[in-house]
Design brief:
Low-confidence stretches of chain B: 315-365
Strand content of chain B: 5-15%
Strand content of chain A: 25-35%
Mean pLDDT of chain B: 80
Shape of chain B: flat
Oligomer: heterodimer
Pfam family, one (chain B): RRS1
Largest interface: A-B, 68 and 59 residues
Shape of chain A: elongated
Largest sheet of chain B: 2 strands, antiparallel
Distance between the termini of chain B: 128 Å
GO molecular function, one term (chain B): 5S rRNA binding
Radius of gyration of chain A: 33 Å
Subcellular location (chain B): Nucleus
Function (chain B): Involved in ribosomal large subunit assembly.
Family (chain B): Belongs to the RRS1 family.
Amino acid sequence: MDALDRVLKPKTKRAKRFLEKREPKLSENIKNAMLIKGGNANSMVTQVLKDVYALKKPYGVLYKKKNITRPFEDQTSLEFFSKKSDCSLFMFGSHNKKRPNNLVIGRMYDYHVLDMIELGIEKFVSLKDIKNSKCPEGTKPMLIFAGDDFDVTEDYRRLKSLLIDFFRGPTVPNIRLAGLEYVLHFTALNGKIYFRSYKLLLKKSGCRTPRIELEEMGPSLDLVLRRTHLASDDLYKLSMKMPKALKPKKKKNVSHDTFGTTYGRIHMQKQDLSKLQTRKMKGLKKRPAERITEDQEKKSKRIKKN
Amino acid sequence: MEGQSVEELLAKAERDEAEKLQRITVHKELELEFDLGNLLASDRNPPTGLRRAGPTPEAELQALARDNTQLLINQLWQLPTERVEEALVARLPEPTTRLPREKPVPRPRPLTRWQQFARLKGIRPKKKTNLVWDEVSGQWRRRWGYQRARDDTKEWLIEVPGGADPLEDQFAKRIQAKKERVAKNELNRLRNLARAHKMQLPSAAGMHPTGHQSKEELGRAMQVAKVSTASVGRFQERLPKEKAPRGSGKKRKFQPLFGDFAAEKKSQLELLRVMNSKKPQLDVTRATNKQMREEDQEEAAKRRKMSQKGKRKGGRQGPGGKRKGTPPSQGGKRKGAFGGKMNSGPPRLGGKRKGGQHQGGKRRK
């Protein structure tokens, strides 16, 4: 509880900075991922975790020891780890006869499990099995999702959101165009999800935009969706709530209609309509003779009243 | 001839352009959806080519990936660019995909007592210099902290002030005063925190997670759980020493709409009779209870006054004659009305009865 944190004041500036980094903020830190091995993780699963750690460096923590927990039964130990290492994304690998080569990807909200999706690894080619040059660690990847399955079912939609969250990296305002180096491609086909990562080669194409050639670089996984533990709708809504300060400001007095026309509103002060400047019509202009007679009439009226 | 060559040139230029564009254009049935802030593209086209591929669709996957990446790169290259230290940098828009936060939105902390006061008075924090000139050491020292400018604790001589006891330890006094100031500051900080915490709790909608609930909350939760059965709690057993919940019955009881017609007629006629009669009907029990309560209150007030006066003057008048009997007008009626009760009462009240005091009625203690 944050109140308890504040009862015990930090005694050093370093401790204070540490606590400030972990407290809830308007615009959040980059999410850290923790990669955990289960009690019975085999070599394939361990290698997968190592490869994902390489992709997620420096925003990831790879736990070296095996942890005997079952995420789907008991989430307390995962939540404890998340609180200690301030990680809101996690990946848990295990292997048993019933669920071979199991990988659980999940995310947390307020140090409690929000979503968890279990994937089975059917085929895996590691980073070190593909012998070519890799890109430097810490580059922001491009993400591509192919296949209409990703929008059809709720499970797939959440999986897509989870994968984006996991792999997207820091949010930057500018990006160096030559620094776009690798792309992660997810395809949903026949109930399987193919995860491939390619290195980008920019070739000349005559015009400004280069032609792209791809070279397979990194881990490639064939995944199958197993169990899911998705957050209830209201918890998910709560976690998506954006603070008011970050919402885009609405421009007042401007409206758009369906045809694309923009309407604006102007607020005027009160006008005396009799003194309005209208178009001058020369034919309706009063001639001097008429004006004199009008004045006389007015005068006589006034005398009558008095 | 020239016209023809010009036309030819134009046609050739067009063909060249088309070729170039062909190298970077990709034909897709459905347009991709781009979120350039996240460098994300979503392809909604059904992967028909892949379905035909068979067990190892590597080449097809790579081709699909190449196409999609080409489209994404085309979009990225259209963003506004600038040159930053010999690198071409594109300015990315805000990410449009909404992703859940990792921690809840921070709540604005309620102001402390000092902040409220300062806001009210319009006091703003004064900007202070970091270093202060220290006469004693002849150098600039920091305002507070290690080796500060005016350090009280380092004085080796304290003059005994005029009115103080000469045997008092002034150094200890100074240390004590400092400890008291620190304690007071800590107390105020905790009080501010408690006030802030109390303010923040109401947003939990009165519900707390298990383990943090108060006794009343648990009791309420237990009662609600008991009643939430198919038979609305009628067949729920209670624990051996558990007491029945009080106040869980109906608050008001109404007569049924179509009940006993004879009884209804009788009660309506009685009501009319009472309203028509000249003599006022007196409910003796209620009247006597009211009277006795009033008397009690008067006596209590008098006793309080007496005790106050007694304290001031040091002497005390015995608060005699407290229990004045009931006024003579009602005396007879009372005895008559409670004849029945007195007969049943005595065995219990025998020991404690003082003449004329515990006569029937419901006595408020």
